[in-house]
């Protein structure tokens, strides 16, 4: 047993040293999938923790009460709540006005809340830049400030009154832009808006003739009781629990979380295809060694162990690389946004992530290598030493059809007939790549603007989702490019001797080059054709509301670009091989 283990280890080290480039490609392929999965797990935490930190740091209330009425009637409706059973603390009532604010030439709906300079028992907004409210100044919620491009020292107009932006602050008592719930006074219908604070002594002048609304923050003896409120109107007062506010804030990253999880699945499938493609090429090269091992007495189990050990080691290394990359990138991507505390983002749960990522990496390595390894291990010794390709199945109609094919097309069809599994991997590679690109184009076609009265501003939720999609598609395209390069080079090297025979029988170097391009384009074309509707369907499945379809010209451009990339990547090694003299190529063929 010790001797066999020593042999496996020696062959493992030898293979890793001899095939360093392929080892790096395998490492990158599996690492891309594991890194994306790590980011997806990190976003699981990002959906809740930033609001929890903000609520703890700002003494967030359990329930926020806002009367439907305005003026003295609103104050009268809030008065009994201060002494209601189960209420242990309160702050307010604070005056509010639903006004229009103009900044940098854009007029938007804004919830203006009056506050005192002294800290309150509940809801103490945390200043993130500048200072807290003072006469003549306004404090803006950070996500709202980012959408408007506001900075400390800028000047805005609230209902025609100029005010200086003295700072930005976050709160857990109201959802971040664009869900600050602007409404016409006395109405229960809410609209998108942002939140600002001003000195309480000024809000009456800013509102002009508009009657003020009011809001009160409540803390309950049993915080869990607040979840029964959600968004309910009782006795003319609207109650909103902290859970409802947390859900509204969590929407900033929820779509991005979905995009990353779906992207991790696409990357996993592409990684399996990539590893299978690389392994298939290596198994072809290693068939002679399989024959030699069998010739000296090694059994199928020993041969399978020799090959699987190498890929499992690479899988473990890739799990570590992907975990490290995802762990380092998680804080930036899971940044909860300027409207919540914890701008450094969050890391995924350590133990769960390590176990999940390691299992995924090993599963990719095992799933992609098991079939070719077992096939090589069960190959007859003589066939393995001969390293014969799959013999084409001759049928009468095929022979008849091949006689009428152009030379380049015939060569391409015969190359795929020799290695049919490689052709299927090319189709899977293009299918997954085109699916992701089509979904990205659908995302780019959406209207990522929020209407706030007279103007439109960027929607931070869609912006974050698009960033996640760009990240996933970028990594996926890089992995697909690596996969295509490996596949085309392996195909050209594997077919160099049959192509040399074709040239000896009269085929020109140009026909050989086009034939290799055709060999890759034949399986790539159905992959692209299926990938366009698959990407559109994937986007429609996870999207809600009104959907805008990407122009057909965009989809056609992506399809042609993918096919052109496949053709170019194939033509380059084919041209280099075709420049080699036929005699040299045939002389190097194995006897």
Order of strands across the main sheet: 2-3-8-5-7-6
- The proportion of residues in beta strands is 5-15%
- Structural category is alpha+beta
**Count of DSSP helices?**
18
Termini separation: 36 Å
* Unreliable segments of 5+ consecutive residues: none
Membrane topology: Multi-pass membrane protein
Family: Belongs to the ABC-4 integral membrane protein family.
Subcellular location: Cell membrane
Keywords: Cell membrane, Membrane, Transmembrane, Transmembrane helix
Fold blueprint:
Layout: H1 2-18, H2 20-46, H3 49-57, E1 63-67, H4 72-78, E2 87-103, E3 106-115, E4 126-130, E5 137-140, H5 142-148, E6 155-158, E7 161-170, E8 194-199, H6 200-207, E9 213-220, E10 231-234, E11 237-241, H7 242-295, H8 300-333, H9 350-377, H10 381-386, H11 396-403, H12 407-418, H13 420-445, E12 449-452, E13 455-458, H14 460-494, H15 496-504, H16 509-542, H17 552-578, H18 582-587
Parallel strand pairs: 3-8, 5-7
Antiparallel strand pairs: 1-9, 1-11, 2-3, 2-6, 2-9, 4-7, 5-8, 6-7, 10-11, 12-13
Helix pairs in contact: 1-8, 2-7, 2-8, 2-9, 2-14, 7-9, 7-13, 7-14, 8-9, 12-13, 12-16, 13-14, 13-16, 13-17, 14-17, 16-17
